[in-house]
Design a protein that fits this description.
Strand order of the largest sheet: 1-2
Oligomer: single chain
Number of helices: 5
Distance between the termini: 54 Å
Number of strands: 2
Largest sheet: 2 strands, antiparallel
Order of helices and strands: HHHEEHH
Amino acid sequence: MTVTDFTIRLFAAALAGLAIGFERQWRNKTGGLKTNMLVASGAAIFVLLSFLIKQEEKAVDVTRIIAQVITGVGFLGAGVIFREGVNVHGLGSAATIWCSAAIGCIAATGLYKETAICTVLILIINLSIDPLDKWLKKRR
């Protein structure tokens, strides 16, 4: 992998994290711009690292690092969840952070169209499901 390819993949992850983080920040949710950009970029860095190691050692399983990203980001997402009486807040932000990590992993593989598709899907979910969620809560 060339330095240019490495850089493009890393910036694709950061850009996807920026788009997702912008939506969170715009709507005053936890885990905004910086959080989602760092999570997507960090996940991409770990995956890119596994590719670089694999170039030197043929017996490396790159999926092992991706698996560790998944569990590590789950721990990070738990930090934005909090309980207030009987209500729990931050689950959507935690899930969004987890998705940002997944998108970072995809960007690191060089699948740019898929990165864009996943980013748009997360944005659509975060923007369009909220009104439905509020409507359902009012019906209770």
